[in-house]
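Run log // design_07
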């Protein structure tokens, strides 16, 4: 499966890169990272299922940013946005599985 190099989120085009390692400013190793201002998403190279999940996760973060909800969520708790993103990711991620199953042509005998 080919992974996207561009994704449109709320009318903005994000460049997606795939990297061997992603480390944040605190030295923490990440599976993915996204930047609203630079319109970039970085995904750690790993198995396809994990990469698809991480893409969905980062897209949800950016959708929240475009909706103007980051500051609202940050005011509640440091972990509120991440909790919401994980919940949505786990709810929406099966779309990939269904899409592959329903789009496959069946052989007729």
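design_07 sequence
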């Amino acid at each position: 499966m080919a992974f996207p190099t561009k994704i449109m989120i709320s009318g903005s085009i994000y460049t997606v890169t795939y990297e061997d390692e992603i480390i944040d400013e605190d030295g923490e190793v990440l599976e993915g990272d996204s930047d609203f201002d630079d319109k970039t998403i970085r995904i750690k190279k790993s198995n396809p299922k994990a990469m698809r999940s991480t893409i969905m996760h980062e897209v949800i973060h950016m959708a929240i940013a475009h909706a103007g909800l980051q500051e609202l969520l940050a005011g509640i708790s440091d972990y509120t946005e991440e909790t919401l993103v994980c919940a949505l990711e786990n709810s929406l991620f099966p779309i990939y599985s269904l899409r592959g199953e329903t789009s496959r042509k069946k052989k007729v005998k």
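Residues 71 and 78 are 10 Å apart (CA to CA).
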